[in-house]
Write a structure and sequence with these properties.
alpha+beta; 22% helix; DNA-binding
DNA sequence: AATGGCGCCTGAACGC
DNA sequence: TGCGTTCAGGCGCCAT
């Protein structure tokens, strides 16, 4: 579930953890990557403001002011993988089968539930040092960064020959669009998902730039998409799936031209689009 | 260098 | 309490 909107909704819903003191970090079955630090080593640290880069969450952990070793101790990089979600609260109950990480604080526990265990919690001394530096290297620009312009998108498209849908999924053009929002943004922009990137000129790049921001922004406002597992940290489902343009709507009429929406496979992933109003 | 494909895991839905 | 197959929203790694 988690693409940028779901991760951002999660970030916003765990804001209450800022300022909490870490009591313990408990791990269940192995996640995608090892934690990289002894869990005991972070006890006593304070949680700073939660950040997001692409589909990663960054939970800064700080020493108390005036501590001899400075303010920033490091932080935890969280990734929700394909099936992860976070819950935060003081009454979560005992961990269940798919709860594989839990940061216990004096304001409640932050718990990662992740059936498929493609998610991760990784310690890093900062975002600019390994392992965070390596994990975040190669990520494209943030879609809502004012510095990310239509011209920048066009320049990033120009040297690529791959299909634009696949390029969007790679996160190199811009971060955050996964399978749902890549399909929907391309419908919004009227671009066939099979179009080679290099064939997209400035006008269509501008439409795609606008479409990505619109679709991702609407999805955040809708609380994300809940196809199966996703919940925000308060346990609430998202609503975007009900307003998706094309994702998951094979055979239904296109909202713009009425033709049936088609499903194809690109890079072993489903792509949904309208043959009537999306052009190569 | 760029690109395409694989595999990590588990659970649900489907066809037989 | 049927069983085997297919599919699922991510992403690092490998071979080409």
């Amino acid at each position: 579930m988690p693409e940028l909107p779901e991760v951002e909704v999660t970030r916003q819903s765990i804001g209450g953890i800022e300022g909490a003191r870490v009591l313990a970090l408990r791990l269940g079955k192995p996640l995608r990557w090892p934690l990289g630090v002894a869990p005991d080593a972070i006890a006593g640290l304070r949680v700073g403001p939660v950040g997001r880069r692409g589909k990663y969450l960054w939970l800064p952990l700080l020493h108390d002011p005036g501590a001899p070793d400075g303010a920033a101790a490091g932080g935890l990089l969280w990734h929700l993988g394909m099936s992860g979600s976070l819950a935060f609260g003081s009454g979560l109950g005992p961990p269940a089968k798919h709860d594989h990480a839990e940061l216990v604080t004096d304001r409640g526990a932050l718990r990662l539930t992740d059936p498929r265990r493609f998610g991760a919690v990784v310690w890093s001394p900062s975002l600019d040092e390994p392992p965070a530096r390596k994990l975040l290297a190669g990520l494209g620009p943030e879609p809502f960064d004012p510095a990310w312009t239509a011209a920048a998108l066009h320049a990033a498209l120009k040297p690529r020959r791959t299909a634009v849908k696949l390029a969007l999924l790679s996160g190199e053009l811009v971060v955050g669009a996964g399978n749902i929002y890549a399909s929907d943004a391309l419908w919004e922009a009227g671009i066939d998902p099979r179009t080679p990137c290099a064939r997209i000129g400035p006008a269509r790049a501008r439409r795609l730039h606008e479409a990505l921001r619109r679709v991702l922004g609407e999805a955040i406002a809708a609380g994300g998409s809940t196809l199966r597992d996703f919940r925000n940290a308060h346990g609430e489902v998202g609503q975007y799936q009900g307003q998706a343009r094309v994702y998951g709507r094979e055979g239904e009429p296109c909202a713009r031209c009425g033709r049936p929406i088609r499903r194809i496979v690109q890079g072993q992933r489903a792509t949904y689009f309208c043959t009537g109003c999306q052009h190569c």
